[in-house]
């Protein structure tokens, strides 16, 4: 009998039962990590240099973010953020938790309040990953920056997101630097409101 709480299996001889705890989130997270690794590997084969791979990862992430924001808003019941600090809290405490199962810390606010860093103590995308020496300029998790840009653009916020530290490159933590560029105004055709 199988359930979400436990998985029971019968050995080939039919003599021993084994009960394993089964937590679907962790298994799907590992599957996602491995699938993402296969995607990055294929991109490295398809493109001649790491910069092109980085651009493709960002572009793919942007397209995911544009679509993911609808799911996020529907599932999270989060209302409109009033400022960039509130946006940072929602990103770290709700979005990252909902989709990656982690809660990055928010640090290094600029004096103007238009830049901050997300510190990921544990980046689930890099589990089981070691960068080869010939890919030292690859930004392996660049998809995340694209997701952030795409999702925030759909809620009228133009931002820049980039990795400034990465555990895959020997840094102690993974750091994504976020910078608010401008509020995007809706341009409605004349006569429509």
Task: Outline the structure in words.
- The structure is a single chain.
- The chain is of the alpha+beta class and 193 residues long.
- The protein has one domain: Trafficking protein particle complex subunit 3 (Muramoyl-pentapeptide Carboxypeptidase, domain 2, 2-Layer Sandwich), CATH 3.30.1380.
- 41% of the residues lie in helices and 20% in strands.
- It contains four helices and six strands, in the order ββαααββαββ.
- The protein has helices at residues 24-46, 50-76, 84-100, 143-154; strands at residues 6-10, 17-21, 105-107, 115-120, 157-165, 174-183.
- The strands form two sheets. The protein has a four-stranded antiparallel sheet with strand order 3-4-6-5, covered by helices on one side. A two-stranded antiparallel sheet has the order 1-2.
- A hairpin with a 7-residue loop joins strand 3 (105-107) and strand 4 (115-120).
- Helix 2 crosses helix 4 (143-154).
- The protein starts with 5 loop residues before the first strand and ends in a 10-residue tail after the last strand.
- Unreliable segments of 5+ consecutive residues: 1-27
The general outline is globular
Number of domains in the coordinates?
A: 1
Q: Kindly state the mean pLDDT as a whole number?
A: 82
Strand content: 15-25%
Question: What key attributes describe this structure?
Answer:
single chain; 193 residues; alpha+beta; Muramoyl-pentapeptide Carboxypeptidase, domain 2; two-stranded antiparallel sheet; 4 helices; 41% helix; globular; golgi apparatus; NO_sig/Golgi_transp_ligand-bd; ER-Golgi transport
């Amino acid at each position: 009998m199988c359930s979400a709480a436990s998985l029971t299996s019968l050995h080939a001889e039919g003599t021993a039962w084994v009960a394993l705890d089964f937590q679907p989130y962790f298994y799907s997270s590992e599957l996602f990590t491995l699938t993402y690794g296969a995607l990055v590997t294929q991109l490295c084969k398809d493109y001649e240099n790491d910069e092109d791979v980085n651009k493709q990862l960002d572009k793919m992430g942007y397209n995911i973010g544009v679509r993911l924001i609808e799911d996020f808003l529907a599932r999270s019941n989060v209302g409109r953020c009033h400022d960039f600090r509130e946006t940072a809290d929602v990103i770290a405490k709700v979005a990252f938790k909902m989709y990656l199962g982690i809660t990055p810390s928010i640090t290094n606010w600029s004096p103007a309040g238009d830049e901050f860093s997300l510190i990921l103590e544990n980046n689930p995308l890099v589990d089981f990953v070691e960068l080869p020496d010939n890919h030292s300029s690859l930004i392996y998790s660049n998809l995340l920056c694209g997701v952030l840009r795409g999702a925030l653009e759909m809620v009228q916020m133009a931002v820049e997101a980039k990795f400034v530290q990465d555990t895959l490159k020997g840094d102690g933590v993974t750091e994504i630097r976020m910078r608010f560029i401008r509020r995007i105004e809706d341009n409605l055709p004349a006569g429509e409101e």
